[in-house]
Design a protein that fits this description.
Two copies of one chain form a homodimer. Chain A is of the alpha/beta class. Helix content of chain A is 30%, strand content 25%. Chain A has five domains: 93 residues, Roll (Ubiquitin-like (UB roll)); 71 residues, Ubiquitin-like (UB roll) (Roll); 149 residues, Domain of unknown function (DUF4445) (Nucleotidyltransferase, domain 5); 146 residues, ATPase, nucleotide binding domain (Nucleotidyltransferase, domain 5, 2-Layer Sandwich), CATH 3.30.420; 103 residues, no CATH class. In chain A, helix 6 packs across helix 7 and helix 12 crosses helix 17.
Chain lengths: 613, 613
């Protein structure tokens, strides 16, 4: 038998028997090339450029390709039989199974759509072939390979068949999920396959519109969670549910409308249609998760803080009134516990703790702080109520990280700061509070319990230079950060330092208990991954200086951005990652801090600030 | 080890080791006793009467049973351990797996509900047991045995959990179908489990309300199919669909309202609630099947007469707006072809052709005649458009089989007849037309082509006595059946005989072609089963005399009543029978008469009447 060599991009080379098709070779070589019509020469989608060795075009080539394409050496891969040595180039990245790249994370994954679309030219019924319409559709799909076999559909899909076959002249596209046909569409729509990942935060909701074939991000939109009108935090929203007859409906409707608006904005940005969106993935804390699904989160706020459901849920767009393609599916990520939700699962998915050889610590700081510690063998997770100090709330001059907020403070001789938007400062946000308290500690203006020292007790030279910034504000000691002492200055008060102490104490004690329960010492943690907007914005040195993160780990801190959102995108783009999410959620051991006998002591100790060197 | 003997009703006797529970013994003995709580002594449902050898009641016995019951010797079977020889009686037939008995059919089947209900006392969440609500429900079910394992539910069911667990104080009943929890209910509702079988005929719809545990019929209701307002037959209804923008909706809504009304009437008759109805089964011809499901039946009326779908469909009550328990399912029987529908599958299920050793013929005569011939190895089926003559339509004095209709005619010397309701005759129905034409043939008043003989050509002595009943009616020859020749008499005209010739010719040719295609002779058919209202009412001798049924088979005819409805009840009561329906529908070979080369000739021959002896 004659043999020939086929060379693919990147130099991959295979020697094959003459007569083998490029489709067979690519399958054998593990090249994830897409053949929408199953390799029957029908759809014209599997074009490749043969730069050396192109033979005569086949009849299918001539039908599907222009004269210009044929002249260039473009052929259909499914129909090309090797008759000489070939050099093959790929034309469209659509055909190749793409890698997902996440900013801020050394994280790759293969795109593996949850749903598949297959174009079928359905046989016509004749006296010799009296199979039903439904049978002919199923047979047409099965002929394209085992991945497009389907044997069930809702009656609403069956109802669409007679008119569709007629108007589409038997050329249709099936949307398939597992063994079910979710929808049938006119003509070949296999190219339209978008999805959206929703990261539903207590405060902010973000939507990422993605191409489910290429993994590319097409649009990003975000909005304030409109549930804030019913309460700023999870507990006050649950109170609304408990105290208003339509409370659950109010909150469910608010988030439903918000995600629908985000979807509308995203498809507008990308110049596509809502109908092109076939999949959605959703993360959020357990309360947001329940409210998105219309499930009463009441018991999440009551000991023992148990969710109604933790398992991954695949729901229909209709179930949550999401205005996307009704033949799509929504993939809701699983929860771990009442206060360790699907958002943390997203973080774990993105940071791959479950694949790590080394033990790593992941911290996602918001109103609640969720922490996980572990590696491929074992992961522990916990949650602490950090309170709103990190978000600038309940701080004397606190504000969100918006224009006018002092976001970073440097104690270099004098006090320097930067302001978001480079405008006159209006207040300070969480990261600046951290910097300020770290500076006060390092210059010896406060002691390890956070109390302002009397001017006469300040011994640090840098501290002495700043002593005139110690003022009295509304009757209690404060540090003057900006402005004049008399006219609405920007200050950090004793009360603010106490708020920060509580917040950092909660996080720090969670971290210490996780490390202890794991049977490790602080130094054994090889990496600290900070997730979330605040985690991404804070100065790691300040975080260690105040003891939010154990100072021993300062050199091992890495910012990973919105890892919850990144994990949600992964679960949207890859069915395998979604399955992994389920496994991760099931295997993580939840540590309930409140019932840990060491918690009270650890918390009390963790509230202390490290002694300045 | 000590051994004891346990005697069950009917004398079944088992010797078992001391300490074995009655539950274990019954399982081993194949006694299909129901243990709703899985045999944990919780539900108190598995009462038995121990007439000899009853020991001390257990703690569970004391909790579940009254002092009087205990004194009688009543115990819970799941908790009773054998410590001496026992005599056991069953108290409630609810507990035993029942046999289904169908009137008119020597047909038995075991009740095997499609859905199961299980009562669970759900564990409460504690700090030590932080499983989610959903997990605790699943675990509670799984603990009751493998048949009640479930791992999925729609989000609407999940939403019901928090309030339900609270109001039901964790005592709930799950409705399970395969691996899915369809619904959760407060307290123990395991006793409520009804279903309804709908036989949707072109003219009449019948509903049979059944107890899904005992197989008992609780109510029967029927109504005229309100679709008749849009056309009397299948073809005119399809024309309505094709020619009116809302035609399909009109017809779908009409049948939906009718079955909802029937269900309402049935539950009222039985003194139960719509909510107690968890299952429905549906048969009908292919057009009725499609219209019930809201599927356009257009192509059923166009060559090659292919249904949109033939496979069995399990749909939700919501899909067809059937106002039963929303946590139920509707089991639609499969079709065979465009004109051999789910009703014929019901007939085959009831008559068990697929289990027969001998070759039998089943004929269901209505506006269409459906026929099937075969045995366990092979079944052929066909359909012919018999026209409405058998239903009395388009016959000069024809009427339905209602009060005032002559229903049977005897040519015994003179002509005698019976009238439905014993009133003055108003017209004749199909069975009387058959009798009259048979009589005319046997007395030699008409020839084998159905033409009235001239008085001088009548040679049969009985015929000569009736010669004065040969009159002229509206200018053509007729036979005077009742009344006076001058004043609105009841007659059978030459035209009526021609109508009957066409109708019987269609059926008879279908039968002959089936027999020929099967490679048999008429005499090889061991039994002729006549199904349907008309088939049940006609005189078998007359049917053979006119050649509707081959005269050779006269002694082998058996009436089987509404076998389509009986088959529907079987499929409702037994999941096994429903699976059998799918297999039967798949395996039947449909014979398309129009494309059979022998059809034209056979039809022409079949229109002739047999020569009188």
């Amino acid at each position: 038998m004659r043999k020939h060599t086929v060379t693919f991009p990147g130099g991959q080379r295979l020697t094959v028997a003459a007569g083998t098709t490029l489709k067979e070779i690519m399958n054998a070589a593990g090249i994830n090339f897409d053949f929408p019509c199953g390799g029957r020469g029908r759809c014209g989608k599997c074009k490749v450029l043969i730069t050396a060795g192109a033979g005569e075009p086949t009849a299918e080539d001539r039908k599907a390709l222009s004269a210009e394409e044929l002249a260039k050496g473009i052929r259909l891969a499914c129909m090309t039989k090797v008759q000489s040595d070939l050099q093959v180039q790929f034309l469209s990245e659509k055909n190749i199974r793409h890698q997902i790249l996440l900013s801020g994370l050394d994280r790759k994954a293969s795109v593996e759509p949850h749903l598949i679309k297959r174009y079928v030219e359905v046989d016509k019924a004749t006296v010799e072939d009296m199979r039903t319409d439904w049978q002919r559709i199923k047979d047409g799909l099965a002929a394209q390979g085992s991945d497009s076999k389907a044997d069930t559909a809702r009656v609403v899909v069956i109802r669409s068949i007679p008119d569709l076959l007629r108007s589409a002249r038997h050329r249709i596209t099936a949307v398939i999920y597992k063994n079910e046909i979710l929808g049938l569409e006119q003509d070949n729509t296999t190219e339209k396959m978008l999805g959206i990942a929703f990261d539903i935060g207590t405060t902010t909701i973000a939507g990422y519109l993605m191409d489910l074939y290429t993994g590319k991000e097409l649009a990003v939109t975000s909005t304030l969670n409109p549930q804030t009108q019913f309460g700023a935090d999870v507990i006050s929203r649950i109170t609304h549910v408990n105290t208003h007859p339509n409370g659950l409906k109010d909150l469910h409707r608010a988030v439903t409308e918000a995600v629908n608006d985000l979807l509308g904005e995203a498809v507008k940005q990308a110049g596509v249609s809502r109908r092109d969106v076939y999949a959605a993935a959703v993360v959020g804390n357990t309360c947001m998760h329940h409210l998105f699904l219309g499930i009463n989160p009441r018991d999440v706020a009551l000991a023992p803080y148990v969710p109604v459901i933790a398992e991954p849920l695949v729901v229909d767009p209709w179930d949550v009134r999401l205005d996307m393609n009704p033949a799509g599916k929504i993939f809701v990520l699983p929860n771990i516990a009442g206060f360790v939700g699907a958002d943390t699962v997203g973080v774990l998915l993105a940071t791959e703790l479950d694949k790590s050889e080394e033990v790593k610590l992941v911290v996602d700081i918001g109103t609640n702080g969720e922490m996980a510690l572990g590696n491929k063998d074992r992961i522990l997770a916990c949650s602490t109520a950090a309170g709103p100090a990190f978000e600038g709330a309940q701080i004397t001059c606190g504000m969100r990280g918006a224009s006018g907020a002092i976001d970073h403070v440097h104690f270099t001789g004098d006090v320097n700061y930067s302001v978001i938007g480079n405008v006159e400062p209006l207040g300070i946000c969480g990261s600046a509070l951290l910097d300020t308290v770290a500076g006060l500690l390092e210059t010896g203006l406060i002691d390890s319990r956070g109390r302002f020292k009397k001017p006469e007790d300040i011994t640090h030279p840098a501290g002495r230079k700043l002593a005139d910034r110690l003022i009295t504000y509304n009757g209690s000691p404060a540090f003057l950060l900006a402005g004049e002492a008399g006219s609405s200055p920007i200050v950090v008060t004793q009360k603010d330092i106490r708020e920060l102490k509580l917040a950092k104490g909660a996080i720090a004690s969670g971290i210490r208990i996780l490390i202890r329960n794991y049977g490790l010492k602080v130094e054994d943690v090889t990496e600290v991954l900070l997730a979330g907007a605040f985690g991404n914005y804070l100065n790691p040195h300040s975080a260690c200086a105040i003891g939010l993160i154990p100072p021993e780990l300062e050199g091992r801190i890495k910012m990973v951005g919105n890892a919850a959102g990144a994990g949600c995108k992964l679960a949207l783009l890859s069915a395998g990652e979604y399955r992994r999410a389920a496994a991760v959620a099931r295997n993580v051991e939840f540590v309930e801090l409140g019932s840990d006998p060491a918690f009270i002591n650890t918390f009390a100790n963790s509230m202390l600030f490290p002694e300045a060197e």
